[in-house]
Amino acid sequence: MFLKELLRQATILLVDWTIPNIEQVPNLKILQLSIAGFDRVVKQPLYTDTKITFCTSNGIYRYCSSSSLSLYLTELVPKSPSTSS
Q1: Would residue 65 count as lying in a domain?
Q2: Distance, CA of 67 to CA of 70 (rounded, Å)
Q3: Phi/psi of residue 15, nearest 5 degrees
Q4: What is the C-alpha to C-alpha distance for residues 58 and 48, in angstroms, rounded to an integer?
Q5: Which of 22, 59, 56 is nearest to 39 (CA)?
Q6: Model-level pTM?
Q7: How many domains does the chain have?
């Protein structure tokens, strides 16, 4: 249940090939793919039926891994008072 609520509130999301349904992410504005390819995404309703900005990791493999990108993006998200140290 916690994950469903986080997805519902998310405005930015980092994913691999697992693209959520439109209903799962009603507030989403930006979807960052941790992969360079985009061919499987262009037929997904989240891409075709919304105005969400999609970003790929094209070129990222020359500089860092997807895990490094995930770690970097995680640091950009403000921590809630209950999780900050």
Answers
A1: yes
A2: 5
A3: -135, 165
A4: 20
A5: 56
A6: 0.66
A7: 1
Residue 37 lies in a domain: yes
The answer to whether 48 and 42 have CB atoms below 8 angstroms apart is: yes
Percent of the chain with pLDDT over 90: 35
Domain span holding position 24: 2-76
Q: At residue 40, what are phi and psi to the nearest 5 degrees? A: -75, -20
Using only C-alpha atoms, the chain has a radius of gyration, in whole angstroms, of: 14
User: How many CB atoms neighbour CB 13 within 10 A?
Assistant: 19
Token reading at 2:
């916690």
pLDDT digits (tens, 9 = 90+) for 61-84: 555 555 555 655 555 555 555 554
**Three-state secondary structure readout of the chain:** CHHHHHHHHCCEEEECCCCCCHHHCCCCCEEEECCCCCCCCCCCHHHHCCCCEEECCCCHHHCCCHHHHHHHHHHHCCCCCCCCC
